[in-house]
Amino acid sequence: MNAPFDDAPINATLVGEEKTEDEGGVQMKRTGVVAGVVAVVIIMMLIVLARFLISKPSQQVALRKIGILVANDLRLTKVEGLKSELEQLGYSEGVQLNYQVENAKNDLNRMNDLGYQLVQEKPDVLVAAGAVEAQTLRDLTMKNKVQIPVVFMGTLSPVDIGLVQDLSKPGGTLTGLNNFHFELTPKRLELLHRLLPEVKQVAVLGDTRVPVFAQTQKELNTVAQAFGLSVHTYTVANSGEIQQAFESIQKDGTEAIILLPGFFLETSTREIVNLATPNKIPVFGVYPLDTEEGCLASYGTSNREQGVQSAHIVSKILRGYSPKDIPVETPDRLIFSVNLNQAQKLGVNPSPSVLSFADQVIQP
Amino acid sequence: MTQERSPWWMRIKARVLFFGILMSILPLTIFGMISFNASRAYLQTNIQEQNYERAHVLSGRIDDFISNMVDSLIHVTSTNAYTLVGQDSSKRDVVLGTLLREVPYFESLEISDSDYRVLGQVSRRKVILPEEHKKINYFPVRFEPGFSLSEVFFTSPDSRPQVYLTVSIQDPQTRQSLGYLQARADLKSLVTKFTNLQIGQAGYVYLTDEKGNLIGHTDFSRVLVQENVQNNLAVQNFLAGNSPTHQGSEYQNPEGVRVIGTYAPVGIPNWGVFIEQPVSEAYSPVQQFSIRVLGIILFGILVVSLISVYFGLKLTQPIEHFEEGVRQVISTENLLAEIPRESNDEIGNLVIAFNRLLRQINEKNENLKEERELLKTVVNGIGAGMILVDNKKQILWWNSIFADWFGTEDLRYVSCETILNGEGRDCLFLENGKVLPFDVNGERRYIRQMYYGLTPGNSENAAYLLLLEDVTQQVEMEARVIETEKMATVGFLASGIAHEINNPLAIVSAHSEDLLDRMQEQGNPPGNSEIQRILKIVTVQIERCKQITGRLLHFARRGREGNDLMDAGNAIQQIVDLVAHRAKQKGLTLKKEIEPALWFLGNENEWQQVLLNILTNAMDASEEGKTIEIHAYQEGQQIKVVVRDYGEGISSQDLSRVFDPFFTTKPAGRGTGLGLFVSYGMIQRMQGHLNIESEKGKGTTVSIILPHKEVI
Prior knowledge:
The complex is a heterodimer. By secondary structure, chain A is α/β, with parallel strands linked by helices. Helices cover about 45% and strands about 15% of the residues of chain A. Chain A has a seven-stranded mixed sheet with strand order 7-6-8-9-10-11-12, sandwiched between helices. Chain A has a five-stranded parallel sheet with strand order 2-1-3-4-5, sandwiched between helices. The radius of gyration of chain A is 37 Å and the shape is elongated. In chain B, strand 12 (about 385-390) and strand 13 form a beta hairpin. Chain B is rod-shaped. The mean pLDDT of chain B is about 85. Chain B contains 17 helices and 23 strands. In chain B, helix 12 crosses helix 14 (about 570-585) and helix 14 (about 570-585) runs parallel beside helix 15 (about 605-620). Chain B is of the alpha+beta class. In chain B, about 45% of the residues lie in helices and about 20% in strands.
């Protein structure tokens, strides 16, 4: 019998929820979810906070590496110019940049190994001090299939020696400075003529290993003909050949010597001057340094200037520009240097009208 | 009743935490955003102004650069006019050589006469061959102080940007033109200077001529391909001659990168220097600032939120514990439980109040239990069957009496009609107080059915309380009373009937004796016709006696129970006939006026008894010669039967008691005092109404109203 008055629980209205195990589990699960969400939010906040706190160190510019290959000590001047100008441009050594310089000390057989060491370091930019270094680095990067930009700090005719496809649009991983030394050879002959108008017999000392040697001859002959000069070319590749050449020069009645650009000749200037001076033969050099070493005059860009100018190209690459789009540059500054002390020794009187143009004059 | 636990978002803790966190986030966010926006605008303006200043400085440098070169040329021409155009070439060469040496930006110098024929020249790179006779390129003088400037061109093959600067050589005395000094100026170093200017990591500088042609760019390859920059907004502003503003313009460069560009016109020459920097980079300080502000805001939010959460939890914990305690009390039903007080604040007071409330509830509960026991005892001892039914008449609850009567099996949700079935027994609850016969435990019992509508919303969801009262004794007693009254009436009538029957019997007796006497007489025996006549008379008189006794027997026999459809007038007529002789004896006149077809539902025997009681009372109250009027008629849906006498009437004191049992004003032995009492009950069972109006000394009117039943 169902009788509410018999056994009705008065406190039935007070009977509330009886927490079953399932409900307890749901409650615990829900609490867990809420706690999880709160924890995730706090962790995210801490991550953002941590990022905020460590954002200062991350603003530091990463130290970037420059690998430089140099054939001899002479070309270290280019490296000095490069570093100096990069410093001016805001790249301090040890702070923004780290340099690794490998010097072959005139031993061309070591070039490849030293270049390989540089490539292995995977620097941001490879820098070649001259043509031989550039060719070495070009071959190494191609062989190892690495796309490290290579900047050459002055070579002659980079198209002719196979460094770039086009001066305006190099197209590859190499770009740099055309030191214009080949193109200036006829200008040197002109300046020699204007400096010493009485000289008619000119000997040209060149290195056949220099790729544009033959083309130089043609240009020289054209200019010599225009000025009524007689030009005779002697090829030298080593010290012995210099001796032999001088024997011929003496016999041929040579009145002046013009040096062609090249790795061997730039290291043999003093030897040549020493052979020419006793014979009263003035020598017209390439680098301003040649004048200091006894040449009567020289016309070309200095090694330091080449380094300085190349620094701007390196800077562009460091800023993200591709070497294939950076045109090969020509020297911003050519230096006409005259050694009047040497003129006195040689007993010649350089023309005053040309002297006015000289940037450097070494007084007696 | 179960209590649903509130969803977590509805709970005080969630709300307090939400509110606390919201209040931590909102003000800091709003304040941070306002500060951030103001600072960002300031930073952006600063960056734009910085770029503008750079462009302005660069344009000034170019202007100075050109001016210095022009000044050098003008100075040389003004101091060496005659030498430059004179016949002495060596002197001219000295001047030119010196000038070339002094101004490193000059690539070559040429002197011409006033007819532009070249008189002499020096060059840094080009070989000056003898006997070269040509004319200089003439560019009309365009700028003050008297010089002309060619368009920028690029040398081959090294693509060095160069221009021709030409100044006139004037005779110092006559101011006549003697010729021209033309310098080929190399802009490479100038361009290098400004293109190497660091504008962030991705910013760049470029230079256009007055036509918007690109003549210098940080990325020189763009100059070589002569990239079209004329669509750049800054270049367009420059070409339109608009003044540069400190606020840079944002636009997409030819590469599709969104940049902020600003520019500064050089003046002389009419070139423009442009600085463009990707918006993403230009505003990187803003982004860094954003991160810092965001970090500070988040840190603030974190700290304030944690504080809010801590205090929120601390605040709501006692509430949660209190709720848990309440749930514990509910689940264990332990009203003696004590929830511990954790704090001395309002919540602590609430806990105390709740504990006190628990004590009171417990006390009330005990009282209720006692009352329930009492009620239970009453309900089960009331002697009546009780059930609660819902709207569908399904039994929800029943008491022990009901169970005794109708079975002890589970009756819950059994239809009321299933139990209380049979003729006239319904659960429609149309007639309250209806007495119905039931077979209870093999005995016939009379049970009065009473129902009470209950207030909706009660705990059992019951619609009616049905009270079944065993009135068997009452019914039987009532039946006996009726029978007694009826027998009393029959007895009362019997004396009248005896008188009435006496006349025909006397006639029968007289004629019988007469016939016997005449048949014993010799000689004059009655003939057959005479015997037949006398026997007819005897037969008629015996038939008359039979009718008289038949009427009495008809009245006196125990009628069957239940209601039938009947005509009220027939019964009236029968009763009038029954009492006609007595009325005649008393000298009363019965005047009746009865409409036909006065159909109604009722028990004929009872209806006759009612009429007989009323007419008997009227005759008893009336004196000889008085008239008793009986009027039966239909009025609307009602049948009215009015019996009016003009007798002694009833006093007002007695009138109020006339329906009481055993109340009579008649002399002892003349009335039982049950007539009107029984009649009243009978008329009520017929759904009718009995009313008596009387005035002492004037007579009495008895009105009976019955529901009319249409007969189809």
